[in-house]
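To assess whether ligand presence alters the predicted conformation, the chain was also submitted together with pyridoxal-5'-phosphate. Input:
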Amino acid sequence: MADRRMYLDHAATTPTDPRVVAAMLPYLTTAWGNPSSIYAEAREARKGLDAARRTVAEALGAKPNEIVFTSGGTEADNLALRGVAMAARQRRDRVAAGDRESAAGDGHHIITTAVEHHAVLHECEALAKEGFRITYLPVDNEGFVDLDALRAALDDRTILVSIMYANNEVGVIEPIAEITRIVKAHNPHIAIHTDAVQAAGALDLSVDALGIDMLSIAAHKISGPKGVGALYVRGRTPFTAQIVGGSQERNRRAGTENVAGAVGLATALRLATDEREARNAHVGALRDRLLDELPRRIPDTIITGPIDRARRLPNSASFAFQHVEGEAVLLQLDLDGIAASSGSACTTASLEPSHVLTAMHVPESYLRGSLRLTLGASNTMSDVEALLEKLPPAVARIRALQPMAGRSA
Ligand SMILES: Cc1ncc(COP(=O)(O)O)c(C=O)c1O
């Protein structure tokens, strides 16, 4: 095993920033009260929670009461989709019961894309089984959503559009502001959600500039703790809670709040916002070196995702090697002390090709050879140079050992 590990999988999770841990610590040690109680111990916790909510709201240009803390990105995505879908269903039921006060309509149509995270796609599948109609928009071969298909899909039953801000596998940044203009021109009442779990830290999250109604983030992608995230919900968005019980989070998400987690998320988001330019410049230079060099040094390699670097996440370099099993590359890199990812949600046990690469029409012979390198603050140019030395012979060895040419799916 190599003596120094190199971590190149920051899209999976990030090392926790010690400043975030320091900010959280008091809420795990001294200020441990239940923020809903009324005595002094509780007031300390409440103060921390309120301050965290203000900080998150500020980073999004939102109001504190529009922030719902969740258990992470997955819950925020699930909650956005189901929260709006169930509100629409209740409205329909009230109309059916003769309540003329309810806005008319039996909206049951949701638009999303073929390249979303499974936290969105699987929720859509669940809603489809409950009678909702889902349109999955196609993307082009760089991963950009087809805006003509969006225009064509919008109809008078559409209640929700959910399109990710940046993709976790190939780093493509979707044109969210343009998307919201198209959707709102069709019908300003359609709710728009964006999964900003990968965009947070790297891109501007101002909800008004984006024009969105809901936005998901997760702390552990921005040097915060795992198991905490937030959903921004614009005031007046029709929305029904999915976890019920107490009246926490203004009745939008019951359960005693994860105060330390919320403080961790807020601190991580504030640091990421304050340091964004420097962080992006640092990882961007490393990413560019990878994008320039890997396809040059390894034959039959393509860059997956946008070629225009301004339109991909600054920390994301993704590739596909022809006739190579990506998992074999990952195992070899691990032996060399390098942690990386195939980028797809598939596990080593199931070598199903990625739904993202499939939707982008990556050629069949490249589909199983994906590699995602996602950079962070601790990476250096000498890390990148070391990878550029180690990877080409590793791929050549695997190609020699596992000839996949002509192998069918
Ligand atoms: C784009 C995107 N959405 C949602 C999630 C889920 O977030 P969490 O791991 O906090 O549940 C992830 C995590 O990989 C992601 O990359």
